[in-house]
Amino acid sequence: MAQPQRHPPAPGDQQPGADAAICRSRRPHEPERPQAAGGTAPAGHAAVRRNSTQWESGRGQAMVEFVIILPVLMLLVAGILQFALIYHAKITLNYAAFEVARAGSLNNAKMEPMQKAFVRSMAALHTHREGVPALNAAKQKLRDEIASGYVQIRLINPAPASFTDHGVTVGNEVHIPNDNLMYRDAGSTGLSGQSVQDANLIKVHVGYCYELLVPFVNGILVRMMSLAPTALQPENIGPPDSGSFAESCVLSPADADRKGFPIFAQAILRMQSDPIQESAVTP
Fold first, then answer.
1. What is the pTM of this model?
2. What is the sign, positive or negative, of the torsion defined by CA atoms of 116, 120, 125, 126?
3. Which domain holds residue 239?
């Protein structure tokens, strides 16, 4: 039996479910892509190219700004690091000054025990590893710095005038009595203007030429401390006083390559032994 021929439906006779089938065949949430006239690329591609060009232009601008700001940023970070190291050294020196005064109080204000106390107290600043060899190396470094003039321990009190007013000769030495102070005359007399109780206070002034370790920043700080401020360079804070410890640290160190920064600390304690005039003279 012959099969009946099927003809395509007329445009007006399309089945109602055809549109729904076409819609279902399309991917979900996929918008229709408009086609430009003449078969050209979609209009959205031009917008994408414009956004990409703007992004690449912004990226290049950020790179230029980063290259400009990088040296300033590195200098700022290096400066913060250097001043943190200086602050650490100052805190250590404060403790060392107390130990120096304590050693002088117990040992007749003799310079040698005070120097040993300084070496022992400041060794932590130069000890970067564990063990006795590292500690001994740090102490030797400090002894060398004392010999090179990078350390100054000054005995401010008792002064030579204190020995003139209150000194008592014992053998070949001049002592200031340290016993029964509460029963001795508290009047101020003589050149020193001190009482015997005041003469039994030991006051030390400790200076340390700290070596600046951060490159480039150390040179900037030394230049600022070496030159006087001007209209064009108001940041300068120098030069140090002539003949001072700061001058020898900044301008004329024993090692010409050393970049030094002078830091100071003081301490005062009651004497626990008789001050002796011979040891009161600071070398």
1. 0.74
2. positive
3. 71-280
